[in-house]
Amino acid sequence: MRIAVGVEYDGSRYHGWQRQGHDTNTVQQKLDEALSKVANSETSVMCAGRTDSGVHGVGQVAHFDTDVTRTEKAWVFGANTNMPPDITVHWAVPVSDDFHARFSALSRRYRYVIYNCAVKPGLANRYMTWDYRPLDVEKMQEAANDLIGTFDFSSFRAAGCQAKHATREIQMIRLFRKGALVVMDIQANAFLQNMVRNVAGVLMAIGAGQRPVAWAQEVLEAKDRTKGGNTAHPYGLYFMKVEYPEEFAIPYTTPEIPFMPFSDEIYLPQKLNER
Q1: CB–CB of 194/161 below 8 Å?
Q2: What average pLDDT does the segment 78-100 reach?
């Protein structure tokens, strides 16, 4: 039997999603251990998107195969009982054998949160990236529009990226400001290693006025990582959602996020240009 699960996690203290050995603290390791206790046998999960160290998951999807029968409620509550407090399974559903959390996905969506203020944050520094420079969101959006489409994103992939090719389709990039927070939502059919953070790094340099709007397209056309900008920090990055064909009936829920970047009622200091 194949089971799909929806996972939320705080990536602050983990070395990314992917299991790297018994001595490395990863999200996959903790999830494998918890589900194995519920199944009373060794269990290994496959995820939709392998997040890096410090990156958070809101709508991560994974699947595993098992020979045992448990109710959906037993998988969820049993896993959570054996999980550390910063990882949660929200749902579990049986799926067909041809479902694959990674290869069946039509798109993935990430959110990048920037705290745009002259003074660094004290409470939420692991949940957003701090940029003290005043950012022009309109210029960032104008530059981002040049990255929407199917292109070779070699300039935006990590040097150690193991993907066979760099061609990806960015389907949407949307930037908006909410008080001192600048948020980038980005969706693609798939992402390269560090791709979202490298896109954010380029757009932040443009928003700060250090580069012209046209620079984003110049970086894209160079197909050379050395021509790109700095890789943005991981703490502001959230894996938000995975889209699958309707035939698999994969649920999608938006958990209530208790910390600042996703709350509608939060205290925000004055914008930089209002100081």
Answers
A1: yes
A2: 95
